[in-house]
Structure prediction request, 688 residues.
Amino acid sequence: MDNAYRWSPAAKGTWDPAAIPARKEVPADVASVAQMWVAATYDDLRRAGPDRGTRVRGVFDRYVIPWFGPQTSSVGDITYFMVHEWLLTLVGRQRSEPDDHPPPPEVVGAPRTYRDLSLREAAEAGEVSVATVRRRWRDGELTGAYRDSHGSVRVPELATAALRRAKRERPIGLSQAVVSDALWVLRRVLAFARANGLVPPGFDPTEGLDAPTPDEVAARTRRPTCQPRPLSLSECARIAAHLHPVHQLVLWLQRVMGLRISEAFGLLVDDVIDLGDTGLLVVRGQGGRVFRVRDDEGRVVSVPYKERTKTEAGTRVLVLPGAMLDPLRVAIEAFHTDPETGEIDETARLVPGLRTAEESGQLSFREAFDVAAAAEGLGTMELGFRVSPHLLRKSVATDLAWQSGIENAVRRRFLGHRASDDVYGRVYTLDHPEVTPLTEVAGVLDELIRGSIGSLLIPTTRRIRWGHANRVFLRAAHVEATLLTAGWSIDPDGGDDPLCDVRRVASELGMAETTARRWMRDGTLRCVIVRDVDGAQRRWVRLSEVWSVRDRLGERVLLPDLAADLGVRYHELYRLSRLLGLELERHPTSRQFEVPPEAAKRLRAEHVRVCALHERSLKLAVTAQLLNRAVSTVGLMAKRGELEVDSETDSSNAVFVTRKSVEAFRVAHATGPSILSMAMRKSPLVAR
Prediction:
């Protein structure tokens, strides 16, 4: 809009009303004002990227204009009660209209026989797509559906009624976040109208209103039934066993390095700097989907790679843990190294595309992640809260948040946020030039990986299906050979290291089959997922992995065996381990406490020290019996210096006096042999 006054150079410092052009008539309806605000904010001033402007226009087209447009002729006609009713409608609290096509009544007659339908037959009967039937089967909405002996999903004919009913009674209530975004957009339009004089100053029909929450029955998204928690590294390893190496690479970039999914797909090969024992990872772009950006001339174009992160603080340099370097090295060797010349294509995308090399997609990874998580009982339905790839980033943030010794600014920069929210953190705090603080984060992550799953190269039998137009397809044999050599990909038919089922695992480890099955389920044994002859997925363990676990368990000593070896009682040794602060784990089969080699060494050394203590000193109670005096009297004698107090003690934390001082006191106050001289010749354990 034109200003009310315009500066006239001919007026020499004065405002010339005659130079003001006639004010244009501006339409004041809701749709026109909304379009003007979006154009001024996102097209002219470019407050955000084109994608944000598209989303805001979508909010207007779906929620704002369809409600306020038919009821008003201008923005000034909007009332408080109109906005109030609008918010309730968005969350689905209005009474729904009756169904125009009620289901026909059931015909009473002879009993009908029902049959089991395939996915396509169920989709035709329920008037939905095959993908919808498959999705609702995964969500557990099809009662009685099962997988037959051939691996095909069969749906009872009665369940098709639930498909039709679910289609008609689909919840309409938006989440509080979506409603809050729509309310924010409406308030910006009202502010734009006030600034341009389309409504009186102070006109705000949204004052005092907040975004409500939908009722459970009307909500489109289900509320969490359990408190959200992070996915542990062991659980992520179980999910990774169902993914091929390309998708595993994305999973670990998010779970270990804390990258956003677009940042993981936006890495280039030269963003990985290998320094030997450690390395650096440069995060500076986004990929995996189509982005709408502005070119150098300001035109909106669609590109598969965006040369900037979500925010300015997202551009960062991270220190790679040693465990994360292993899959990165194998991926570069397999996907981006020419097998004939050995040259590395440093300009290629680190995560290669499956259909085309430079257009890797997030959608295929999201779908594979959801299927793998559900197969391991770690999906949204099983855990009771939203499980998505973004939870991987939250998981590593949680690990660092509860890790002592890491400064808050380091945690925030590792995840791509500003050092703090004040001006000092936003403007004046720059990244360390040598990224030294992030080295500690890499060490913590490396220790967590080594102590839980050992390696990020999770063996899998899932093969990568390259598109024929992909240049990697021409050297697929080299890729497969590299992955097999690294142990990342496994051939189920390999004879050198056969696969073991539950029965053989239990036999090799000398345990019950239920225990072996639990170990294979919780990740104690690294499993390989292979489909059997019926098409069902089964867990198998490589024989080398079974022997590795057996050797690792064989190095540990049980606490009762160590107590018998040292000649002490079990409870004394257990109390001694608690006093020393030793962490003992229970053996999975016998449930006895296991003593690692380092802990056993400390217990043996402490036992030798205690034995030496009893050789040279006595407790006050034993001394009182030998001297035929009260314990309190012996204590006073020790305080007065008549008896020498030993500086050490045992697990009882009692006071000891030296045998030498007791013998000297006896000689000074008695004559002839006594029971004390006989006690001196007893073993230290008896004297105790």
Summary: The CA atoms of residues 10 and 349 lie 60 Å apart. Confidence is low (pLDDT under 50) at residues 1-13, 95-112, 682-688. Residues 176-195 form the longest helix (20 residues). The first strand starts at residue 116 and ends at 117.
